[in-house]
Write a structure and sequence with these properties.
Largest sheet of chain B: 5 strands, antiparallel
CATH architecture of the largest domain in chain A: 3-Layer(aba) Sandwich
Oligomer: heterodimer
Low-confidence stretches of chain A: 574-585
Low-confidence stretches of chain B: none
Mean pLDDT of chain B: 91
Distance between the termini of chain A: 65 Å
Bound molecules: thiamine diphosphate
CATH class of the largest domain in chain A: Alpha Beta
Structural class of chain B: alpha+beta
Number of strands of chain A: 22
Shape of chain B: elongated
Number of domains of chain B: 2
Largest sheet of chain A: 6 strands, parallel
CATH architecture of the largest domain in chain B: 2-Layer Sandwich
Number of helices of chain A: 25
Mean pLDDT of chain A: 95
């Protein structure tokens, strides 16, 4: 006899079968049965201050390791609070599962108390969604949801469970496998041999090939394969914001980040290459700038597991649909290493001629602080960020050497993401050092989750770059709105007191000579969160920059334009000796 | 793949006969800003599947995107394009047309020419016709002088010949 379980118990047993040991969420009338069943289970239930926080925690948890983050919310307002988190995960292809309570199934459509059409509201921001109408379907639904979330191009999946379904009993049997006839990923994952062969031939013949790698490399766990492929064939690598960490930046072949606030030499390399090999990247507008002038001297290869990305914004010459890990492995076997000696010398020269720069000033500079955090952690920390200038500086000045070490909302650009994502990441990797590099504007959008971090005694570190501004907005207002500062001054706040109120350690740093000590102190504290409030220069800008609508190789705030002001080239790598040794490796 | 002109394309989509699938398909189409001329849904001989016939306007690249995006939906089981000349397509037209006794004969003649049926009424009739879009357009042209008071047309349904 199979056991008779309630829907809520089935949810718990299914989560256990999927290896879930922690969930994030907030209870309410329509998911109380689930919380009650969880209460009696070995699963760690993390109560969050806000459901949006729960969704970002699940997201940060997924991005930090290879497991699936799970978040829970009740019906109506609980569910609608998840929208931003699911949209964030959807844009960056993060596998998470959201389980929401729903009003009794016979009440649906009646504007019952706390009813919202959750499946309808979420439809455009999830990979797939379910409304469970029969308790007998529940176990299979959960199995399918995990499968869909994690395979192909990953993404969030929503399961909406009416409260009467979670109270009803049925025999529990967890299926071993799924069969969803409309879900066609299997045909894509291996990669088409003819397409791969054509791409391999193009690479073998190229003189100036450039790998342009994105979040897909991280998602498919292909960092090793990418590194092998690039090194074997001596092909330089530029990464997107989400691709950071997919290729070690200590490697001489690393050209760093490209795009709107990418490095000059990365964007120039894109303009100069004769073969652009896009790997798990999607030609986002923040990468391409003006699309018609993007990488015009090159033929293009596009490797992606999602066929709908091919030719979406940029027409490519050699599409390869497949999981990037599998495809890179096959390419490594097929490609005859092209002769890239001259090309590497050219890139080496661009790297020297167009470095990343800033000029130290009286007050604290976020760029300098981030470099110091990078040194103190030896590039081995997990970073999360909010959205704005600090996010771009983190991308530019932290040295990322490992996949899954940069956790940031790239596609949706969600302010408030940094703190809850850091919490999720710390749960996923308790032994790692997790830093949230945040802005005072972004941080305040989710600062209530300090309570969650403190309650769970998480040793996360928050480097709060307090410029008393929506700095990125102010930068745009200076550049494009004649310095009319409409709503870009953030309402001031004592962040040290705020941290202390939640039971975290708060440190304020105003002088340059206190920076390293504060970082060191934060790294020593291992039983609660530490927030360092860095009082930074207010009017510092993120350079270089591609102005909106401009081609990506026509940048402003370049080295050339800043050097006479005393801006100093900042070697981005730790071992700066091999800064220019591209051609030697 | 090189044609730039916008054309009409007929896509057939077999989808799971689940609750909410029409909303997923139409939501995706509007979210992506595709220009849809018509969309019809019906049951098939397999009761677990529904058949959607979608007429899209756009160049070849747009069409390709529509197909790829729809294919991403978990509930879309199969999708293909019908090629000109290889399928039969029909729409249904219902029109209420003014027709006093004097004009009734003329109207019957027009209807007969298009193989349309007429249901009698006092001073107006309902004309019912099936055909492809252009023949129904032709019928409408000829009905217009009588005075059309109400009109309903379905979108296109289509079936491959072989
Ligand atoms: C939820 C949300 N609202 C608004 C924005 C628009 N926005 C982008 S950056 C920014 C300012 C960020 O300020 P802060 O977090 O202090 O970072 P800074 O730029 O000062 O480093 C704003 C308002 C956004 N990205 N996300």
């Amino acid at each position: 006899m199979t056991e008779m379980l309630t829907g809520a118990q089935i949810i718990v047993q299914s989560l256990l079968k999927e290896g879930v040991d922690v969930v994030f969420g907030v209870p309410g009338g329509m998911n109380l049965p689930t919380f009650d069943a969880l209460y009696q289970s070995p699963i760690n239930v993390v109560l969050t201050a806000h459901e949006q926080g729960a969704s970002h925690m699940a997201d940060g948890y997924s991005r930090a390791n290879n497991r699936v983050g799970v978040c829970l919310a009740t019906s109506g307002p609980g569910a609608t609070n998840l929208v931003t988190g699911l949209a964030t995960a959807q844009m960056d292809s993060v596998p998470i599962i959201a389980i929401t309570g729903q009003v009794r199934s016979y009440m649906i459509g009646n504007d019952a108390f706390q009813e919202a059409d959750t499946v309808g509201i979420m439809r455009p921001v999830v990979k797939h969604s379910y409304l469970v109408k029969d308790v007998k379907d529940l176990a299979r639904t959960i199995k399918e949801a995990f499968h869909i979330a994690t395979t192909g191009r990953p993404g969030p999946v929503l399961i909406d469970v009416p409260v009467d379904i979670s109270n009803e009993k049925t025999a529990f049997e967890y299926p071993d496998s799924v069969s969803i006839r409309g879900y066609k990923i299997r045909t894509f994952e291996e990669g088409d041999d003819a397409q791969i062969k054509a791409a391999a031939e193009a690479i073998s013949k190229a003189k100036k090939p450039l790998l342009y790698t994105g979040g897909g490399v991280i998602l498919s766990g292909a960092a090793k394969e990418l590194t092998e492929f690039a090194r074997k064939n001596k092909i330089p690598v530029t990464t997107t914001l989400l691709g950071l960490g997919g290729f070690p930046e200590t490697d001489p072949l690393s050209v760093g980040m490209l795009g709107m606030h990418g490095f000059e030499y990365a964007n120039y390399s894109v303009a100069e290459c004769d073969l652009l090999i896009a790997v798990g990247a999607r030609f986002d507008d923040r990468v391409t700038g003006k699309v018609d002038e993007f990488a015009v001297k090159s033929k293009k290869i596009h490797i992606d597991v999602d066929p709908s990305q091919i030719d979406k914004t940029v027409k490519v010459d050699y599409p390869v649909v497949g999981d990037v890990k599998n495809v890179l492995k096959k390419l490594t076997k097929l490609v005859k290493a092209p002769d890239t000696k001259d090309w590497l010398v050219e890139i080496s020269k661009m790297r020297k001629d167009f470095p990343l720069v800033y000029k130290l000033r009286k007050k604290l500079l976020p760029q300098d602080i981030i470099q110091r955090i990078s040194k103190a952690t030896k590039g081995n920390a997990i970073l999360t960020t909010g959205v704005g200038q600090h996010q771009m500086w983190a991308a530019q000045f932290y040295q990322f050497n490992h996949p899954k070490s940069m956790i940031t909302s790239g596609g949706l650009g969600t302010m408030g993401y940094g703190l809850p994502a850091a919490i999720g990441a710390q749960f996923a990797r308790p032994d790692s050092c997790v830093w949230d590099i945040d802005g005072d504007g972004s941080f305040q959008m989710m600062s209530m989750e300090l309570a969650t971090a403190a309650k769970n005694r998480l040793p996360i570190k928050i480097a709060l770059m307090n410029n008393n501004q929506h700095g990125m907005v102010r930068q745009w207002q200076d550049l494009f709105y004649e310095s009319r500062y409409a709503s870009s001054v953030v309402n001031p706040l004592d962040f040290v007191k705020l941290a202390e109120a939640y039971g975290c350690v708060g440190i304020r740093v105003e002088a340059q000579d206190q920076v390293d000590a504060a970082i060191a102190k934060a790294m020593e504290i291992n039983d609660r969160p530490t927030l360092i409030e860095f009082m930074i220069e207010k009017d510092e800008n993120v350079w270089p920059m591609v102005a909106p609508g401009k081609p990506s190789h026509q940048m402003i705030g370049t080295y050339e334009s800043l050097k006479d002001n005393g801006a100093v080239a900042q070697p981005r790598r730790l071992n700066s000796e091999d800064e220019s040794d591209l051609s030697l490796s | 793949m090189t044609e730039k002109n916008t054309e009409k394309h007929t896509i057939v989509c077999l989808v799971e006969n689940h609750f909410g699938v029409l909303a997923r398909v139409s939501g995706l189409i509007s979210a992506r800003g595709f220009n849809i001329e018509s969309l019809t849904v019906s049951k098939t001989e397999d009761e677990t599947l529904s058949r959607m016939t979608i007429v899209v306007e756009g160049d070849a690249a747009t069409l390709e995107q529509v197909k790829r995006q729809l294919n991403r939906l978990v509930d879309v089981v199969e999708i293909w394009e019908l090629r000109a000349g290889e399928f039969i397509d029909r729409e249904l037209l219902l029109a209420r047309v003014k027709a006093d006794d004097k004009k009734r004969e003329d109207l019957k003649n027009v209807a007969a020419k298009f193989g349309a049926k007429i249901s009698d009424g006092d001073d107006s009739v309902i004309v019912e016709a099936t055909g492809n879009r252009s023949s129904l357009d032709g019928l409408l042209e000829e009905l217009r002088p009588f005075g059309i008071t109400k009109l309903a047309r379905t979108g296109r349904v289509a079936l491959e010949r072989a």
